[in-house]
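Sequence only, no structure available. Ideas?
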Amino acid sequence: MNDLNREAQAVAAAADEVFDLLVVGAGPTGLACAIEAQKAGLRVVVVDKGCVCNSLFHYPAHMTFFTTPELLEIGDIPFPSPNPKPTRNEALQYYRLVTAYYKLDVRQYHRVERVMGADGEFTVHAEDRFGRPSAFKARKLALSTGYYDLPNYLRVPGESLSKVHHYYNDPHPYFGMDVAVIGGKNSAAIAALELWRSGARVTLVHRDPELHRHVKYWIKPDIENRIKAGEIKAWFSSQVVEITQDAVLLKTAIGPKTLKNDFVFAMTGYHPDFDFLERLGVQFKGEDRRPVCDAKTLESNVAGIYLAGVIVAGSRTNEIFIENGRFHGRQIAQALASKLRASSK
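Reply:
I predicted one. Tokens follow.
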């Protein structure tokens, strides 16, 4: 059977199952959207290319949030934690339990490939992890795709080498290794400190003359003191120009510099999937590429497609977090309930 026949069968199988809302993205904000829509009496499905809270799952294994448990809560379910700042594992457990409590219909490991149709009659085509097609019919869509899956690449020779990572998870494999950490914000500072404390020889490389002012107040003096003591080497006002199997080549304020190197962590940030939004017809405005959407309802310029979470801020990914993005679900649910009631009269 060819791909077209399989896809036709998937669409036919979905013909009798129409959801009021399909949410793309099963992170905390996407789950909040589904919960609030479900509370409003709507039939909801959530589709994600990975697991529930896929981005949080790929955070560093020993990460601690910069916020308190109550600011991560969704669905009016308390987040019990003995710690003033919860850990990654606690958050994952909490969101699993909330998903189970509300009996959310989450289709994990289904990557959305394209969307057909229009407001009131969308067909969302997806593929599972084995490439098998599926299709979902929905009256409305809510996009909560986050930004953590798309790194900001250095775009230098050698970046595709297996020694280069754009995500940091655990320091253990880098004991006794020469490791370069690229960046000057929280993720770079945390990675540098953990790697150094686990026995790696760490060099921090940052294009600006100093660490970013938004590095957390309890992290900044720690890494600054490690740099001052020479325990972590640092090259400020410097850029990576090439990565080789055994070295990293820098352009510095005092000229070219070659660093002996085994591994590179390019902690240079991430960005939303603008291409996906553009394919759906969503428009952008300004240098920050903020998607056009109604501030009250969060409906985009494409009728029936709503935006939630960090993608609302475009490339200014430091403006929306779980703490404020979780309320987008209530805004969308209220707008949807009002529209669907009106259409049923």
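The chain has two domains: 3-150+270-344, 164-266.
Hope that gets you unstuck.
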